[in-house]
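Hi everyone,

Forwarding the result from last night's run.
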Amino acid sequence: MHRVVPLWVVAGVGLSGCLADDPVAPGPVPALAFLTGSTGTDTIGAPLAQPVVVEALDSVGAALVGIPLEFEPEPIAGDPGLLLADSPSGLFRESAQVQTDGEGRATAYVTLGDRSGLATLRVTHAPSGASVQTTYNALPGKAVSIQLSPKDTVITDGTAFSPRRYVYDRGGNEVTRPLQYSVAGSLAVSAGTVFGDGVGTGTATAMLDGQSASVDITVVPDGHVVVGGFARTGLKVSRVDGTQGVLRDVPGAVLWVDAAPQGRGMAFSFEFVVAGDNVTGPYDRITPATLDPTLRYERWPRYSDDGTWVYYEAIRGLRTEIWRTRLSGNTAEPVTAGAPLGLVNVGDRYPAISHGGNRLSYSADRSEISDIGTLEVLDIRSGAVTPIGEPALGSRWSPDDAWIAFVTPDYELKRVRPDGSDLETLTPVQFGEGFDWSPDGNYILGVSPDGDPRLLDLGSGTVLELPHLGRGQTTSISSISWYDNWE
């Protein structure tokens, strides 16, 4: 037990020898110390497990009885940080004044505030200025709101989904505890991480403390593409998921674009066909105007797989032919003769060279009344022509040359064998003529008639809308080409 010092001794006043006008001597400066409740970690709004007990002693270790101690917290970002009361059932306030008891001890009850972080409590004897302080660690509380951003996103098959998360408790503190996920569709979850699990669409739902938020995810195949627009919007190269995008300004409206094999460059057309080595390097016209003065317009470039030739439409007067330019030496020559002489507004359009380099598909228009041609296949070595007979706009060969995919004037996407057999419609969803097969032959990437990018999964028949590929373009997209091995 501490020796108790009566208040009349603390006040320094004797029972005799005092005059009314004598000054009162100041009391001793107490030594303050925490006995219990000086540490604690809990969530916001939680009461501390132990009351805070502070002992006040004089210089010889005697208990100071009946002196007032102020319990005051330091605010945290406008919040009191702590709330205090002098009894468990008392009213909790932003401060409390408690007198020491017969053992020189003052007891206060503490509840953590609504702000997370270190909360400081200072206990002060105001007459003497003596004080002591301690800190408590207030952790974020239960989540009351969860938001994920973006609300819809695109990831590559097999890669992880990492959204921006906004999780807060009732005090507006960020909650950083791990979220639990459930998934549906083309997604999988492992060790709390969401992955793309097959090309398609899916939904990931994040959950914590009874709260949840969902995000829609489109899962696309890996690879790079080059995108061209109908107006002066430049060329865009990016991954299929839209990342690693590079936008290249070009001098004119990019109508049709094709990527060179193995990522060695690209060709595109506006008034004439140009080609270059990469997305940042210079581009040169590959068909000089002096080569043939009757060439008025060129478009629809298509590389041969060995990178030797670029095939394209060449408009001569009112007739259209298929030409090709040898990139080494910049020499050009006609490939098809077009329509018989004397006819106008006719010709051969939309060339597509096979990957083997020996066959060419194109649309042959022989009617002056209609500008719609039918699909034909030319054996370049022999000159033999196989008429497929189907109305066609653009066409493309599958990677193994087993199929020719083409778009009809009604924007139906079909495929047929090079000999004209096994004709089938690939999807009821419309596609424009600016499309391309994926290098593995499992997908066709193209655009809608209105220029909106979309992907057809040939295995499932699913069509995925890919608006992210058009971001950065100021108008609709005309054509898309896979860009192998681009870095």
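The two ends are 81 Å apart (CA to CA).

Cheers,
N.
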